[in-house]
Amino acid sequence: QPQLVQSGGGLVQPGESLSVSCAASGLNLGYWAITWFRQAPGKEREGISCMSADGDITHYADSLKGRFTIAKDSVKNTVYLQINGLKPAATAVYYCAAEFNLCHQGADARYPYDYWGQGAQVTVSS
Questions:
Q1: What letter does residue 67 receive in the DSSP assignment?
Q2: Which of 3, 14, 96, 109 has the most CB within a 10 Å radius?
């Protein structure tokens, strides 16, 4: 059964950086696009950015563009979300989601992505 398994996250202090990973099993990320979302307490799931199967990146929130970086390790079949300069407002559960090949226009968590990761809690606090 194909699945996305997330790791990383944790408790960090403001200003620090963190990486969350999304490892795929049973599906080759050379053919799948990965979108990153986050969901803060009491808020809707928000799209951050997407990497297509070919490595093209789409950013969904201009306010987040400068501090979030997506990277893929094809050997490990894993996509990473690097978050720099964390602020308390970044406290959320971070999710990855897979769709075939291309990033569709817009990032709506209600879109029928084929697979979701289990989520990784990131807490930013001093």
A1: G
A2: 96
